[in-house]
Design a protein that fits this description.
The protein has a 3-stranded mixed β-sheet with strand order 1-2-3. A two-stranded antiparallel ribbon has the order 4-5. By secondary structure, it is an alpha+beta fold. β1, α1 and β2 form a beta-alpha-beta unit. It has 5 helices and 5 strands.
């Protein structure tokens, strides 16, 4: 029996799940920012480190842009508006990731790739966490997976 090829608009995350990063960078809540830097260095293709609660549920992420800004403040590349902001940033560098955690949109395996594409385009993202029905991180869909299917929409 011949398998019908799905159009891009009918593809689901699970249709490219074999390509999805199945072990995205992740740390438990309460981790220190130094650990986030270490996680980025251990996985140089990652652009986010996902933060999980004790049950493995996704709380948010720390992205490379945030780390670059914090580093810029620390070394003086970016100037602070006032002394209190500098103290706040200094204290955040000593504390855990919760001070710089950002909420990130999520996908499930049953979501359409077009939903992922729309979120990525509108929110200027190149990757999205994939969670199960309980909100536990199970993978990461990045632009590579979308490009592998989307390239067929363009002529050679």
């Amino acid at each position: 029996m011949t398998e019908l090829k799905k159009s891009f608009s009918d593809l689901l995350v699970e249709d490219v799940y074999e390509l999805v990063v199945k072990n995205p960078s992740a740390l438990p809540s309460g981790s220190k920012l130094r650990q986030v830097f270490d996680e980025f260095l251990n996985n140089p293709v990652s652009r986010k480190v996902y933060i999980l609660n004790d049950d493995g549920k996704l709380l948010g992420a720390v992205n490379t842009e945030t780390l670059l800004r914090l580093l810029g403040y620390r070394v003086g590349v970016r100037e602070f508006a006032n002394w209190s902001l500098w103290r706040l940033m200094r204290d955040m560098l000593k504390e855990g990731v919760e001070g710089v955690l950002i909420k990130v949109p999520t996908l499930k395996r049953s979501d359409k790739l077009t939903k992922a594409l729309q979120i990525m385009v509108e929110d200027h993202l190149t990757d999205l966490p994939v969670v199960d029905d309980d909100g536990k991180l199970i993978g990461e869909l990045n632009s590579f997976e979308i490009f592998t299917k989307g390239r067929e929409l363009f002529e050679e």
